[in-house]
Specification:
The protein is an alpha/beta fold. It is built from 13 helices and 20 strands. The termini are far apart. The structure holds nicotinamide-adenine-dinucleotide (NAD).
Length: about 475
């Protein structure tokens, strides 16, 4: 416990340097055992012509320390600048985003006095894989990727987090009533992984009604785990309804590296005035101290911060006549927290962090035998600008052969042939499903594509129709 941990620090842009200085002051005064390496990222680096906003020497530091404490940065206006957050997340493999959303009633105004929810968001997959295509003049596509290893890792992280932080329940949000395969897999894996944690309560909500419930009755939730897109949106909702967007910190965790930050941006209009609230970054620092296995220091900092809140010593953003006692600047707020190190709050609940239990190597479950895969046919996506569906069906049927036959055509997932409805909106991107009654072979499907082209049909892309151990690995079109 006595050795120091190296960390990489970026002071960021806008209010970043002020809030980082205040946060590090508190953390160091609390006795954190850290060795700091400072890197420069963000606006200055972007404006030097580096479109990523981060230089190779900074990556070297991050790879060395594996822990990144990052103040917010400003992304310059205009195109061509890549989001540093997304780059860091992807390059360092930070698969889990963890955001505690807590209300501090009666010291910070909130409609939800007893909220204490942790959102665990999958950070790499889903619609954020960056796999998008233009299918035709009028149709765009974004691929939603959900994988077994990705889902397993995030669900396990959520349950381990619950155990470590003495949380009682893990809830999963998905939309598996609609996305039966992708969200269905996430839900199934949540159930599988959850079975390893008999003492943690588990539940699943469809994300729409779950989100409504969370916004209305957040006290019904404890830890919530979800795929990337829902997590992105709902972690902001949760932070906002806690009444304290400026007070929330977050952790981005990978198997090798981790990054800790405030959830807000660089607030350039507030910069250099000693106004900004350093609390979000400081609480990000608390998450970092827990990660560094310095629970004693994390606890000292967090409890001193709760005391400061309770004593009504507030920055302008949360200062309220009547509730607050003293309006302070960034630096004075940090000093007030330092003055309370060693104290515990009276009204707000004191926090307690314990040392991480050594990671148990989980015995690998029996390796599932690889599924038997059969090829049932092929979906051929085509651009068909005339929108004459019957003419397309006629041409596509002329390509039938080797047992592969045109089974149906759909547009935006709605069947339009045979027997389409006049009311269905058709675009210029269609999907023709060719199915083999028995089985087909890859060579036969490739030969089919040649015949489709010969009919003057423009092929955009294809998806094979495969079954895994006899279970279709594709969905039916609506109305099929
Ligand atoms: P913002 O979070 O910087 O500001 C939103 C509002 O909250 C502003 O009114 C601001 O004054 C206030 N605010 C934010 N943090 C505060 C604090 N600590 N204390 C007091 N008030 C605070 O969002 P924005 O204005 O949309 O973005 C500004 C810049 O920050 C942009 O360049 C954006 O790209 C960047 N940004 C960076 C990150 C990051 O580095 N993680 C995240 C979000 C936005």
């Amino acid at each position: 416990m006595s050795t120091s941990s190296p960390i990489t620090v970026a002071y960021g842009d806008g209010i970043g340097p002020e809030i980082m200085e205040a946060s590090l002051h508190v953390i160091q005064e609390a006795g954190a055992r850290i060795d700091i390496e400072v890197i420069e990222i963000g606006e200055k680096v972007y404006l030097r012509g580096n479109s990523a906003g981060i230089e190779p020497s900074a990556w070297e530091s991050l790879r060395r320390t594996k822990v990144f404490y990052k103040a917010p940065i400003t992304t310059p206006q205009g195109g061509g600048f890549k989001s540093l957050n997304v780059t860091t997340r992807k390059m360092l493999g930070l698969y889990a985003n963890v955001r505690p959303c807590v209300s501090y009633h009666p010291f910070v105004k909130t409609k939800h006095p007893v909220m204490n929810v942790v959102i665990v968001r999958e950070n790499e997959e889903d619609c954020y894989a960056g796999m998008e295509y233009q299918l035709s003049d009028t149709v765009m596509e974004c691929l939603k990727i959900i994988t077994r290893p990705g889902s397993e890792r995030i669900c396990r992280y959520a349950f381990e987090y619950a155990l470590q932080h003495n949380r009682k329940k893990v809830t999963c949000f998905t939309k598996d009533n609609i996305m039966k395969m992708t969200d269905g897999l996430f839900h199934k894996i949540f159930d599988e992984v959850g079975a390893d944690y008999p003492n943690v309560e588990k539940e699943h909500w469809i994300v729409d009604i779950g989100a409504a419930k969370m916004a209305d009755t957040p006290e019904a939730f404890d830890v919530i785990v979800m795929p990337n897109l829902y997590g992105d949106i709902l972690s902001d909702v949760a932070a906002q309804i806690a009444g304290s967007v400026g007070l929330a910190g977050s952790a981005n965790i990978g198997s090798q590296c981790a990054m800790f930050e405030a959830i807000h941006g660089s607030a350039p209009r507030r910069a250099n005035q000693n106004l900004a609230n350093p609390s979000g970054l400081l609480l990000g620092g608390v998450l970092m101290l827990v990660h560094l296995n310095q629970p004693d220091i994390a606890e000292r900092v967090h409890n001193a911060w709760l005391c400061t809140m309770e004593d009504g010593i507030h920055t302008y953003d949360i200062f309220k006549e009547g509730t607050s006692k003293q309006k302070v600047g960034t630096k004075e707020f940090g000093d007030a927290v330092v003055a309370r190190l060693g104290k515990t709050p009276h009204t707000l609940k004191a926090v307690h962090y314990s040392a991480a239990s050594p990671k148990k190597e989980r015995a690998a479950g029996a390796q599932k035998a690889a599924a038997k895969v059969t090829l049932d046919g092929i979906d051929v996506y085509v651009a068909w600008p005339s929108l004459d569906t019957n003419r397309l069906a006629e041409a596509a049927q002329n390509a039938n052969g080797d047992g592969l036959e045109l089974l149906m055509i759909d547009n935006r997932g709605v069947k339009v042939w045979p027997g389409g409805m006049a009311e269905t909106l058709c675009t210029d991107a269609y999907r023709c499903r060719f199915s083999a009654k028995g089985r087909t072979t890859p060579k036969q499907t490739v030969a089919l594509l040649g015949r489709v082209l010969d009919q003057g049909i423009e092929i955009v892309k294809t998806e094979t129709l495969r079954s895994f151990d006899g279970v279709a690995g594709y969905t039916l079109a609506q109305g099929q």
